[in-house]
Amino acid sequence: ASTLYKNRDTKHWDEIMKRWSGLRDDEIYKTLRVSYDDLNSSDERSIFLDVACFFGGIDEETAIYIWDACGFSSRLSIKALIDKSLIEIIDGKLELPNMLREMGRRIVGEELGTGPETQSRLWVKEEIINVLEQQK
């Protein structure tokens, strides 16, 4: 996880991937998870998970508008996530490497229970439809 803090942009991810190529997915997940667990506030955690699940590639200002409406400290949290190399702003859009997106989605998948109906976020179309149909 300290590797993430030292590397300020995604150009270093190729080297990290080569270094980690022999590791199993669970080992990589546990290593990356330390960075998430180290976040200082629930706002930072929520915003990271939102970017991982929905807002990757979305305009930063649009996302800030949404998070501000939810009462989050959006700009402070985004800066903290950038400082910890968990997200980037590229051409005004929120971005993160695929490994971090997968980690965020796995964290959401591990919430509360085993099915999508217990998760805080849904992003797979079929799961959304199934959950909504079950709620009828």
UniProtKB/TrEMBL annotation:
InterPro entries, alphabetized: Disease_R_plants, WH_DNA-bd_sf, WHD_ROQ1-like
Example GO BP: defense response
Chain ranges of the Disease resistance protein Roq1-like winged-helix domain: 43-110
Protein name: Disease resistance protein Roq1-like winged-helix domain-containing protein
Organism whose genome encodes this protein: Nymphaea colorata (pocket water lily)
Organism placement in taxonomy: Eukaryota, Viridiplantae, Streptophyta, Embryophyta, Tracheophyta
